[in-house]
Design the sequence.
C-alpha cells in the first residue's frame, strides 16, 4: 500500500493521464462587460460561495433618483469600471435581475473610512482604483492589486467558504472593513437586520437578513481571521429609536456585539502585513456556518485551497475534451462550459441542513440541495446539458425542486427561486420540462411518480399567472392576464412535457388531458396574418398589433416574429398552421435576414444591439431553438449555416463577448451544445437536433464511463455544411440524434464542406 | 386498577382533600390601574403565554410627538380605558419599561377595518368599547363582552398556547383580525419583519421579528382556527420598494403567504357564530410552535383548558394556605402570591429547544429554560421566595442564567434579560445574589462551582457600567460613571454574595478578595453629613448635593436618604458609620415620618404619590429591606409596626391597589413575606428578619412535603406588636429566623398585642 502510494506521488499524472489542463482555456472575464452579467471572481462548480469583486455598490437615492444604472450591476462587476468597492461572497451569474452581494470585505490602510466613496472620488471612501493589468482570474482563483491601500488580493473558495489573502505593502495601520449594508439590488432599502458577535480575537459570527428580490433571505456567516484582531469597532448606520446599549457602552470600540439594520465593522491588524480571512456561509444558522468552516477549511494554506478549487474545475471541464480551429473558439467553448457549470448552486450545510421555501429548517435526505433556479432560461439547454453530462447532479436539482414543491404553500414547483424564496420572475412552469427531460432520458435519480404529481398540481394552480383563464378558455386572454400569448405558448409546451411524463408512467388518462392542453398554442394563431396574436376573452384577436414590437403585444422578451415560432414540441403542426413548408421557411429566413427598424432596438430587454441578428434575438431565450427549426423542413442545411454563423457572432472571447445576459448558463449551454453539433429543441423529447459542429474533435466523458468521440473532417470556418454523418460507422438518416445514441457512446464522424449536401437527410 | 380509578372519579376531592379553592381570592385587576403595570389576562404559573387585552396600541407619532403616554402601557392594559384594541399573547407583569404585546387578535363584525381606531373614535377601527361590569378575570381565565362587534370573548392558556373563544351575536360577516404591527413599546418603529403562511383553511403559521427593548427578538407562531376560514387577506402596511408578488398576484384575497415589515390579516368566518382560536408560540421556529400546539392543545374543549389552567393555579396557590382578619387582606395576599408566581417565564419548546442569547438554538439539557429576569428587582424577595417555596423551579432559573452566561459574548450573567436578549436595564450584577442565596440555602438543583465561576467572571467585566473604575478606585467615581453611589453600594452587596459562595465552597482566597470588595460601601459614606455621597475620581465628594433629590445625585430610583441605608449585608457597620444606634434609628424614623417637599414627588420614577410614605419610597425597590433594619437595633418593635403599617397602605384589593410597578413580582413578594412575618433582608444570608405577621393562620407547604404552620394569637389591626414568639414551643431569642428553621417545619406561634414588648429579643 505504501509502495503504491509513493508511485502515485511520483507520477500523479498517471492517475489523470487523460486529463488536460483545461482551466487555462477559461476566461472568467468573458461576459463581464455590458449585458453578459457574469462575474470574474472565484467559485467551485455549483458552489455556494461566489467570491467576487463588486465595482459598484447599492444605488444611492438622491432627490428621488437612483444615481446608478443598477441593472448593470446584477453580478456586481462591470469591466469598464475603474474602482473596486470590495469583495462580496454571493453572486448570480448572468441574470437580468439583481440580488445577493452578501458580506462585503475590503482591506484598507490608514485612517478608517466607513463609507465606500464614489467611483469619481474613491479617496473619499474605502474603495480603491485598480488596473486590469494587475487583475487575473482563472477558475477558482481571482487576484488583483488595489492601488490605494496597496494591497495584493487573492481570492479562492471551497463549496461554502470564501478565502481571502491580503498582502499589505505597508506595515502600519492595516485594517479590514466589513460592510453589511452593501448589497446588490435595485433599491437601497434592502437590509432588514444584521447581528454580529466577536466571539474571540480571530472569530466573528453573525447574519444578515435582507428583503431584496428574495423577499425573506438570511445569510449566516462565520468569519475567521488568520491573525488576531488588535482593535475593532461596529457602526450602526441606521440606528433605531431605542438604543439602550449605545447609551451605556462604548459600542464602537472593542464592544463585542452589535445588531441593527445597517451594520459596518472595521478590524485593525496594526503592523501585520499579511492577513488571511475565511468566510463561511450557511443558509441555516451560525452553527451551520461554523460547521462549514471547520469541515471545509481546517488550515491556512491559501495556495492549497486555490489548487483544490482549480483541480475541481479541471476535473469538471474535462468532462468534454474539445479542440477547435482557433484558440478563441476553445476559450469561448471552455468559458461557456465553465459558465454552464456555475449553477444552480449548492444550498445546504455540510450536515445536510438547509432553509426551505417555508422558511423552516430541513435536512436533505438522500440528495444534495441546490438553489437559484432561473428556470424560464435554463430549462431550454442548461438543464438538458446537466442531465446529459452530470445526471446525478441534475437529479439532485430535481429533488431540490420537489422539496421546494413540498414546502410551497402554493403547491407549486419552482418558477424562479433562490435562497429559500420564490421570486415569481418570468412565466411558465418550466420545472416540468426539466423533470420530463430527465424522465424521458431515464435519469434514475428521483421519484418519477412524486415528480409527476408535483407537475400536475403545479399546472393546475389557478392563482398563478393566467392559469385559471388558460384552463377555462384554452388560451390566456390578454385582457385577463398580460403577456398572454407567451403564456399560452409556454404552458402548451409545458403541458406537452407533462404528457410525456404521463406516457412514461403509462397514465393514459393524463396523457389525453395534457396532449389536449399541449395543443393550446393553436388557439393563439391568427391565420389571417400568419402570426401568433393575442386574443381577448370574447375570442377576438387584439386589434392594434405590431408583430415587431416586444412591448404590450402579448409577449415577454420577444416579439411576435420570434415568439410565433415557439412550438418546440410540434414544429410540424406549426409549419402546417403557417401555411406549409415554403411559407414557414420564408418566415425563418426573414427572421435572420430582415432589417429591424431602429426604434425596436431601444425597447429590446436585457441585451445589447449585437445580441440581435436581423430580427432574431439570440440575447434573449425564446428563440434559442429557432435556428434548429430548419431541421424539420427539407432544408436542414440552413440550421447548419445558421448555428455556425451565430456561434462566433454572439460569443466572443473578450469581456463584452456576450450579446445578452448569460442567464445562469443558458446562453453558454447553447454554445456548448451547438459547438458539439446537437441541441435539445424540445426538452422532454429523447431527440436532439443535429447541426454542424464547430469542434475539430471532441470526447464527451459520460458519468457511467462511456464516451462519445466526435470527429470532424475538413473542419473550417467556411466548411459549415455537413456532407455526411455516421455514428459508429452507420449513417444517420435524419438530422437528429437520440439521447441513447449519444450516451451509448462510440464515434460520431462528420464530414464538412463549403456547400450544402442537399441529398443528406432526405427520406 | 379500574376500581381504584373509578373511586378517584367519584371522589376526586379525596386526592386533594387539603386543597382550598384559592383562585377565588385572586383579583387579576389589582395593579392594572396607574403604575402597577400588571395585566388582567390569562396565563399559567411561569407560563410562556400571557394572553391579555391591550387597551391601547403602539404610540402614534404625530408631528414628532408621541400621542400616548406609552409608559402607562407597559402591560398593555389600563383600567381606566374604555376600549380594547385586541388580545395579544405576551406581557410583562409590573415592569417599568415596555416591550412584547405580540400577535394581537381581535374578533370583528361587518366591514373589515384594518386599523385599530382611537379611544375617542373606536368606530373608526377594529377596537371596541367594553364595560368592566362585563369583564371578569380569575387565574387562567379572562372574559369580556365587546360592545361593538357584540362578541363574548373568553381567553385561557396552556404553558405555550393562548386559547380564544369568540361567541358572536350575529350570524353574518363575522371575522377575526390579526395585527402583527401591534406591539407594546415606546417607539412605533419596532417591527423588523413578519412572515405568514396560510397552510390550510384552519392553520396559519409565521413569525414576527421586532427591535424593541429586546433588540433582536422573534416570536414564531402557529394559529389554529376551530372553523374553516372562508376568506382571508393579508395587508402589508409598510411595503418595501420591490414587491414582485404584489404585482403578479391578488395578494390581499386568499393569497396564502405574505412577508413584510408591517403585516395585518383578516379572516372571515361568514355566518359562523362561534370561533375558537389556538395560538401556539415558540422562541425557536414554526416547527416548534406546531409541536407546542399539538402537544399541549389536542382538543377544542375550551372549558377543559380553562379548568386545567385554574387547577394549576389552585395547586400553586395552595403552597401557602393563609387566613386573615379581612377578606381584603386575603385577596391582596393571594393576588400578591399570584403575581409572585407569574415569572420568570418558561422559554423553550416542549422538546427543550430554545433560542439563546447568542441567537443560536440550544437544547435545555436537564433543566427548564426561563426568561424575563428583572434581577435588579427580583433578587430582593421574589427569587428568595421561589427559592424557599419552589426550589427546583428557582434552580432551573439559575440554570437558565448560567446558560445565558455561557452564551454571553461578554461572559456575564444576566442583568435584565428577556427573550434571548440582554437589555442592560438598571445596575448591579444581582444574578450573583440569586445564586448565593440558593447556595447558602443548600438548593441542590445546579452546579455550584460553575455558578461561582460565572459570578466571579461577571463581577470583573470591566466594560460593564463602571466596573473598571470600581475595581481601580474601590468605588465608582461619579465623573466616570453616573449613578455612581448606587453602583458602588450594590456592587458591594453583590461582592458580599460572592464571598458567601466562596465560603460555601471553601475558597478562602476568593473569600478574602470579595469580603474586601464588599466593604466598598464605606468609601461612599460622607461622615460629615451622615449620608452616602458621590465621589469624584480625585477622591473628593461631589460639591452640590441634595439628599432628597433622585436626579443627578449619584443614585438611581432613590435619593440619598433612602439609598444611604443600602448595606443589607452589614447593617451593624452601617449603624456604626452613621454614628451609632441612636442616630441610625433617628435616620430610620425620619424616613417614615418626614414630610417630603412637593417638588420631589414630581421627579420620583415609576411610582404614584401614594407609593411614598414620608420619604420612604416603597414603590421603588432600593428601600424594601429598610423597614426591617430596626431589627438590628434595640427597637425591633418598630419593624413590626412599620411593616404592618406598609402592608395595608401600599397594597389594596382594587385596580389601583399598587403604589408602584409590581416589577415582575418583587413588590408582591414583599407583601407575601411580610404578611407571613419574615423577610430576606440580605439574600445570600440564611437568615430572615422577623416581623409581625398579618395572617391569623397560615400553612407553608414545602416541596419536600414538610410544612410550617404559622399561628397568631390576638391578631388584629391594632395588635401589631409581637408579645412572644416560639418555634415548636421554643422561644426565638433574636428577631430573626433561619432558612433551616423555616423549612424544618413545625409550628411558629406568635402572640400579638397593641403595645411593644420591649423586653423581647433582648440578650
Sequence:
Amino acid at each position: 500500500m505504501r509502495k503504491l502510494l509513493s508511485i502515485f506521488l511520483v507520477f500523479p499524472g498517471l492517475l489523470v493521464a487523460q486529463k488536460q489542463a483545461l482551466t487555462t482555456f477559461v476566461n472568467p472575464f468573458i461576459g463581464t462587460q455590458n449585458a453578459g452579467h457574469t462575474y470574474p471572481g472565484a467559485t467551485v462548480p455549483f458552489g455556494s460561495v461566489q467570491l467576487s469583486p463588486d465595482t459598484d455598490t447599492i444605488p444611492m437615492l438622491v432627490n428621488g433618483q437612483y444615481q446608478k444604472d443598477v441593472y448593470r450591476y446584477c453580478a456586481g462587476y462591470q469591466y469598464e469600471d475603474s474602482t473596486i468597492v470590495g469583495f462580496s461572497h454571493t453572486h448570480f451569474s448572468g441574470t437580468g435581475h439583481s440580488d445577493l452581494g452578501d458580506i462585503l470585505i475590503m482591506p484598507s490602510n490608514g485612517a478608517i473610512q466607513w463609507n465606500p466613496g464614489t467611483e469619481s472620488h474613491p479617496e473619499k471612501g474605502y474603495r480603491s482604483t485598480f488596473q486590469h493589468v494587475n487583475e487575473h482570474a482563472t477558475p477558482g482563483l481571482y487576484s488583483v492589486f488595489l492601488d490605494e491601500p496597496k494591497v495584493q488580493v487573492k481570492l479562492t473558495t471551497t463549496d461554502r467558504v470564501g478565502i481571502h489573502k491580503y498582502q499589505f505593502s505597508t506595515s502600519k495601520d492595516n485594517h479590514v472593513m466589513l460592510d453589511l449594508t452593501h448589497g446588490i439590488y435595485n433599491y437601497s432599502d434592502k437590509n432588514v437586520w444584521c447581528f454580529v458577535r466577536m466571539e474571540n480575537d480571530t472569530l466573528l459570527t453573525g447574519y444578515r437578513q435582507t428583503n431584496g428580490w428574495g423577499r425573506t433571505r438570511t445569510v449566516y456567516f462565520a468569519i475567521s481571521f488568520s491573525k488576531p484582531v488588535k482593535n475593532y469597532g461596529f457602526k450602526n448606520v441606521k440606528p433605531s429609536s431605542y438604543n439602550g446599549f449605545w447609551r451605556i457602552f462604548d459600542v464602537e470600540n472593542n464592544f463585542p456585539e452589535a445588531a441593527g439594520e445597517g451594520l459596518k465593522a472595521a478590524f485593525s491588524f496594526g503592523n501585520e502585513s499579511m492577513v488571511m480571512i475565511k468566510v463561511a456561509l450557511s443558509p441555516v444558522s451560525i452553527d451551520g456556518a461554523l460547521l462549514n468552516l471547520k469541515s471545509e477549511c481546517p488550515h491556512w494554506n491559501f495556495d492549497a485551497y486555490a489548487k483544490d478549487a482549480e483541480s475541481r474545475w479541471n476535473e469538471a471541464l474535462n468532462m468534454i475534451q474539445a479542440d477547435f480551429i482557433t484558440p478563441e473558439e476553445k476559450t469561448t467553448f471552455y468559458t461557456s462550459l465553465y459558465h454552464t457549470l456555475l449553477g444552480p448552486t449548492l444550498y445546504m450545510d455540510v450536515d445536510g441542513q438547509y432553509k426551505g421555501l417555508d422558511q423552516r429548517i430541513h435536512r436533505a435526505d438522500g440528495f444534495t440541495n441546490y438553489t437559484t433556479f432561473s428556470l424560464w432560461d435554463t430549462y431550454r439547454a442548461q438543464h438538458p446539458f446537466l442531465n446529459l453530462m452530470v445526471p446525478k447532479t441534475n437529479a439532485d436539482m430535481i429533488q431540490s425542486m420537489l422539496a421546494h414543491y413540498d414546502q410551497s404553500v402554493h403547491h407549486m414547483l419552482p418558477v424562479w427561486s433562490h435562497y429559500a424564496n420564490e421570486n415569481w420572475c418570468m412565466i411558465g412552469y418550466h420545472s416540468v420540462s426539466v423533470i420530463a427531460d430527465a424522465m424521458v432520458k431515464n435519469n434514475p435519480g428521483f421519484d418519477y411518480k412524486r415528480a409527476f404529481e408535483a407537475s400536475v398540481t403545479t399546472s393546475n394552480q389557478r392563482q398563478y399567472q393566467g392559469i385559471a383563464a388558460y384552463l377555462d378558455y384554452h388560451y390566456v386572454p390578454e385582457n385577463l392576464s398580460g403577456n398572454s400569448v407567451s403564456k399560452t405558448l409556454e404552458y402548451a409546451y409545458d403541458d406537452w412535457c407533462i404528457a410525456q411524463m404521463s406516457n412514461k408512467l403509462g397514465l393514459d388518462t393524463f396523457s389525453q388531458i395534457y396532449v389536449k392542453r399541449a395543443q393550446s398554442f393553436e388557439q393563439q394563431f391568427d391565420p389571417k396574418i400568419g402570426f401568433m396574436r393575442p386574443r381577448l376573452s370574447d375570442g377576438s384577436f387584439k386589434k392594434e398589433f405590431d408583430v415587431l414590437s416586444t412591448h404590450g403585444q402579448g409577449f415577454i422578451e420577444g416579439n411576435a416574429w420570434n415568439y410565433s415560432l415557439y412550438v418546440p414540441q410540434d414544429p410540424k403542426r406549426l409549419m402546417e398552421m403557417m401555411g406549409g413548408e415554403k411559407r414557414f421557411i420564408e418566415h425563418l429566413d426573414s427572421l435572420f435576414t430582415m432589417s429591424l427598424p431602429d426604434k425596436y432596438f431601444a425597447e429590446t430587454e436585457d441585451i445589447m444591439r449585437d445580441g440581435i441578428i436581423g430580427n432574431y434575438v439570440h440575447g434573449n431565450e425564446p428563440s434559442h431553438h429557432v435556428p434548429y427549426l430548419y431541421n424539420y423542413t427539407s432544408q436542414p442545411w440552413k440550421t447548419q449555416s445558421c448555428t455556425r454563423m451565430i456561434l462566433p457572432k454572439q460569443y466572443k472571447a473578450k469581456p463584452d463577448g456576450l450579446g445578452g445576459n448569460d442567464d445562469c448558463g443558458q446562453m453558454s449551454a447553447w454554445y456548448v451544445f451547438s459547438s458539439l453539433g446537437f441541441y435539445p429543441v424540445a426538452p422532454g423529447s429523447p431527440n436532439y437536433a443535429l447541426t454542424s459542429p464547430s469542434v475539430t474533435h471532441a470526447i464527451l466523458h459520460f458519468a457511467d464511463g462511456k464516451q462519445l468521440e466526435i470527429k470532424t473532417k475538413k473542419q473550417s470556418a467556411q466548411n459549415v455544411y455537413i456532407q455526411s454523418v455516421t455514428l459508429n460507422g452507420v449513417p444517420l438518416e435524419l438530422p437528429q440524434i437520440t439521447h441513447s445514441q449519444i450516451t451509448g457512446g462510440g464515434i460520431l464522424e462528420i464530414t464538412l464542406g463549403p456547400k450544402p449536401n442537399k441529398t443528406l437527410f432526405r427520406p
In short: The first strand of chain A starts at residue 52 and ends at 54. The CA atoms of residues 83 and 119 of chain A lie 6 Å apart. The radius of gyration of chain A is 26 Å. DSSP finds 21 helices and 38 strands in chain A.
